[in-house]
């Protein structure tokens, strides 16, 4: 989104009701000192322009203790609760002493803020708490307030411009997931899931409002940011492709669709939904348009110079397979379907980090071991299938063994093997009119 459009939307925020909970600036009625805490996309505490954050390489536990006390700032937290939180598995022989030492280290983190650390991390009656003497503004409270006003069915905000402005402000607040450096802490996981879910809903609401305005450039910007935070939400990818298409960035739309296809296939061994595929077909149809010039059509169909076998996506491979079946009914040629399966020594799918690299090498071995007229595709997370026309079973076996030999020369791991199978393709059987009638 261009800067002018962004400020046009967010400018409406200034006309919101007095006491707007998402306003960050210090107003006249606020305390001269206000503590601002960021937890979305990272952890930082800021007072009067002085900031501390968790970007340093210091030990994690002092930061974990500080995070916990700040997030649950509205209650006194017992020593036992802190010990169970910081050392859930093994509190050690002297957990109380360890906590006092850790509290000292957490307070040292606060020194650059210019406020006595004992005033910020308060100890009283066997418990600890974050200060209540100095106002503390947290980004998660601001973000949740925006979401509650925007997403509630009977929300008080009715003006479309104001509603969109609030959505954009909420998206700007969400810099990333809650406390990402502590994402595996048991107390962080449910909180992070909650705010992440709110963020996804807010993105959908923003896109809905922008669709009504047909502001596809803004949708593109929103989706690109959202995908950076949540790369596996198919709807974010769908709306990004759709907005690029509607904004006449056809080649970019096609490129991102193909990127999404690879992303979901490599990570989950699944392809996009039918809904997404229909959008792709629509884009392709528009991209091609009507053209009566065969020279330009051939130029558009021309393949970039490449060597080795022809790799294609599975739907294309399936169509080519059907075409070959129809052809051999007439020609009587021999054609074989080959299956290569990558596995460990127990016959199981290898671990993902090993599998991804091994499949890249197997892909290269297939491409460089076959003729340029041979076709292959990835069939599953650990398998490739190949069409070998005009070969005998013996020659097919030789080809597969050559591929496997080349693979092991490129990627020499003794804990991996490639199993192969070979089967003739049977001719397509045309149904007679009588069969069809029956």
Helices, strands, pairings?
Blueprint lengths: L2 H8 L24 E4 L5 E4 L2 E4 L6 H12 L5 E2 H8 L8 H15 L7 H4 E4 L2 E4 L5 E3 H13 L8 H14 L14 H26 L2 H14 L4 H13 L3 H19 L5 H15 L5 H8 L8 E2 L2 H18 L3 E10 L7 H18 L5 E6 L2 E7 L3 H18 L5 E9 L8 H5 L1
Parallel strand pairs: 1-7, 8-10
Antiparallel strand pairs: 1-2, 2-3, 4-6, 5-6, 9-11, 9-12, 10-11
Helix pairs in contact: 1-7, 2-4, 6-7, 6-8, 7-8, 8-9, 9-10, 10-11, 10-12, 11-12, 15-16
Write up this protein.
With 438 residues, the protein is an alpha+beta fold. Among the domains are: 31-134, Winged helix-like DNA-binding domain superfamily/Winged helix DNA-binding domain (Arc Repressor Mutant, subunit A); 231-287, no CATH class; 310-424, 2-Layer Sandwich (Alpha-Beta Plaits). The protein contains 17 helices and twelve strands. The chain has helices spanning 3-10, 60-71, 79-86, 95-109, 117-120, 139-151, 160-173, 188-213, 216-229, 234-246, 250-268, 274-288, 294-301, 314-331, 352-369, 393-410, 433-437; strands at residues 35-38, 44-47, 50-53, 77-78, 121-124, 127-130, 136-138, 310-311, 335-344, 375-380, 383-389, 416-424. The protein has a five-stranded mixed β-sheet. It has a four-stranded mixed β-sheet with strand order 3-2-1-7. The chain is elongated and about 90 Å long. It starts with a helix and ends with a helix. The model is unreliable at 1-31 and 432-438 (pLDDT under 50). It holds the Pfam family BTAD.
Q: Any idea of the CATH class of the domain at 310-424?
A: Alpha Beta
CATH topology of the domain at 310-424: Alpha-Beta Plaits
Please bin the fraction of helical residues: 40-55%
Tertiary shape: elongated
Under CATH, the homologous superfamily of the domain at 310-424 reads Reverse transcriptase/Diguanylate cyclase domain
List segments where confidence is low: pLDDT < 50 over at least 5 consecutive residues: 1-31, 432-438
Order of helices and strands: HEEEHEHHHEEEHHHHHHHHEHEHEEHEH
Q: What's the oligomerization state? A: single chain
Average pLDDT level: 84
Main beta sheet: strand number and arrangement? 5 strands, mixed
